[in-house]
Amino acid sequence: MRVAIAGAGAVGRSIAGELLENGHEVLLIDKAPTAISVERVPMAEWLLADACEITSLDEAALQRCNVVIAATGDDKVNLVVSLLAKTEYGVPRVVARVNNPKNEWLFNEAWGVDVAVSTPRLMSALVEEAVSVGDLVRLLRFSHGDANLVELTLPEESALAGTQVGDVEWPEDTSLVTIIRGTRVMAPSPEDSLEPGDELLFVAAQAREEQLEDLLSARRVSADG
C-alpha cells in the first residue's frame, strides 16, 4: 500500500515509521526545509513541497496513493490537503488530524475526509474509558455514514451479562466488532457470551449511541426493574 503523509513533524514521522515497519510505501511531504530529516525515517520517500499546491501533489503522484494522511499542525492545511486528495486525485481513503477540537465539525465528507482523528478528544476518551464502566466512550469518528467507533466496558449489573452475542437484539446501524477480555482480543461470534468487564468495541451510527448505551449499561436494569 502506498501512503502519502502531509506533515513531516513528530506526528507524521511517527506514523511513517509504523507504516514502514508494516511493509508499506511511505512518502513524507513538508514545505519546511527544517522538517526534512531523511536520517530519522530513512526508508521513506521525502518531498520538499507545499502539500496545498496542485503542482506539488502532481509531483508526489498522489493518484497512485491508496491513502493520504493530512498530519500537519494546521487544521486549515489538513482540510485543504484532504479536499484536494479526494476531489482532484480520487484517493480512496483520506485520514486527517484535527488539532483544535472546535474545528472537528469541519472534518467530514464535504472536505474529503474519511476518518478524522482528534488527538485531544482521543486522549480525553482514553481517560474516560479508564475510569468509566457502563458509559459509552466515543473513540473515533468516521465521516461516511456518520458512524463512530465507540467503546463500553460491560458492568456487572448489566442485564446482558452472560448473554450470547447472537441472542442480543442490537440496535440498527450497529455492529459489535471486537471484544477485549483481559489480554485477549476476540472477533465476536454468535456463540460468545458477554462477560462483566468485557471491553466492547462497536461501529455505530451516532443516532444509535444512546440506545446502545441503554441496552448495555447498568441503567437498563434499574429502568426495567
UniProtKB/TrEMBL annotation:
InterPro entries, A to Z: K_uptake_TrkA (IPR006036), NAD(P)-bd_dom_sf (IPR036291), RCK_C (IPR006037), RCK_C_sf (IPR036721), RCK_N (IPR003148), Trk_Ktr_HKT_K-transport (IPR050721)
Signal sequence region: none
GO cellular component: plasma membrane
Keyword set, alphabetical order: Ion transport, NAD, Potassium, Potassium transport, Transport
Residues of the RCK C-terminal domain: 137-218
Pfam families named among the record's database cross-references: TrkA_C, TrkA_N
A single MF term (Gene Ontology): potassium ion transmembrane transporter activity
Gene3D superfamilies linked: NAD(P)-binding Rossmann-like Domain (3.40.50.720), Regulator of K+ conductance, C-terminal domain (3.30.70.1450)
Protein name (database record): Trk system potassium uptake protein TrkA
Species for this entry: Streptomyces fumanus
